Amino acid sequence: MKYGIVGATGRVGQLLVNIVKNSDDKLGAVMFQGTQTIEFEPETVITNDAKTLLENCDVVIDFSAPIATQSVLEAAIENPKPLVIATTGLNDHQQNLMIEASKKAPVLYATNMSLGIAILNKLVAMVSEKLRDFDIEIVEQHHHFKVDAPSGTALTLAESCAKARGLNLKEVIVTGRSGHIGARTKDEIGVFAVRGG
User: Is the dihedral of CA 170, 171, 175, 176 positive or negative?
Assistant: First the structure.
């Protein structure tokens, strides 16, 4: 199998590169913006172009940024390849591109690849549905390297809560409070981000 890794010089990208290097598979291509901070095998194609990436791999793994994911999705609609995407902070357009790409090749998308978070997501949906009179407040903490807030994981948990109660998350989410704001509404879902350490 020849892998293409998007965001190959990022924290998770570097882990993925090392996993592939230590396997029987090959690193067909890597895509990243900015400075090359790690060494790649001579046969690995290094690019910042999604079309070139897709031409040189069998499957793409993407732990990058929304704009990079968007370029991969646009290219994958024209040159379908299986995609594993864990980029968070995707806007509606980018999510729609993912749906279109999934019509042409398999797409696995998760805002968090942890089994524990997958189980937690199911649990919060069940609790949210059964305890309808309870307030929902999500407080999440990440390291200071995290670039989006709230995190994709926190937003996915909030989305599961909203769906379980038949609500549209965009209409009930509150991501910050300050000053004299009045009483909390019944359907409000609070999501707050802490960064540090």
Answer: positive
